[in-house]
Amino acid sequence: MNLETLNLIFFSPTETTYKIVKTIGQETGIPHVTECNLSRLNPGITENESKEDTLAIIGMPVYGGRIPLEGVKKLEQYHAKNTPAVIVVVYGNRAYEDALLELKDVATNCGFKVIAAAAFIGEHSFSTENKPIAPGRPDLSDLEKARAFGQQITQKLHDGIAITNFGNLEIPGNFPYKERKGLPLFAPETNSSDCNQCKRCEEVCPVDAITVSDEVTTNKEACIWCCACIKACPQEARYFENTTIKAIREKLITNCQERKEPECFL
Question: What are the phi and psi torsion angles at 199 (to 5°)?
Fold first, then answer.
């Protein structure tokens, strides 16, 4: 199969999912690589990015057992034509539940042909230095498995089977999917004494919830708790420490210490 372009499509506010997607893609050997960052407010989606001579690798994080609705809405702007696709979800060592199945369904409805899938582990967005949850993931072992997965995909594509002849890939998960729960109206806050108003938090927010002027303000109704602003702040001025978040963090630390390993489906 002669594939000329590798298109990395990802929603990755903290760049953890992007790291996995990029590592998998590097093993395909496809020289021309394009990227579509769905975490940006204007990712620049065009129909030309999903032609038949393109392999797409589509990555999303897992939020509460589902893929983020903001990522779904942007992915649905694609109009592929039987474009081969690899789908990947990344979760914080708890469980990915229905997220991988949901991503398969969304990608299929967009016209992609899902030929492989995987669930990888990344450091949880609520993880902190003092309260770590899957710290340092993906680590060297995870990235080695991502490279091996990329090599398996390459072999599958080189076996000479036409895309239309690939069978329906069985993916774990349930339908109807797990119910999306609304988030309480609070968001990360800013320690004004540490903030130098560099606007990095405003730049990385995937839902345009942060405004920096004389002070930093966050639209709590828009915030999706991705914590990109916290991870990206060079002054470490952003924090998420209210009672609810502390309780969730402690529960994750108590119940999700056992190391989960990546799962791949070909």
Answer: 75, 10
- Relative to beta strand 210-212, strand 189-190 is unpaired
User: Based on the domain organization, do 73 and 195 belong to the same domain?
Assistant: no
Residues 107 and 193 in one domain: no
Q: Model confidence over 148-163: pLDDT tens digits?
A: 999 999 998 887 666 6
Distance of alpha carbon 249 from its chain centroid, rounded?
20
> Same domain for 92 and 154?
yes
- pTM more than 0.85: yes
Q: What dihedral angle (degrees, nearest 10) is formed by the CA atoms of 228, 230, 232, 237?
A: 150
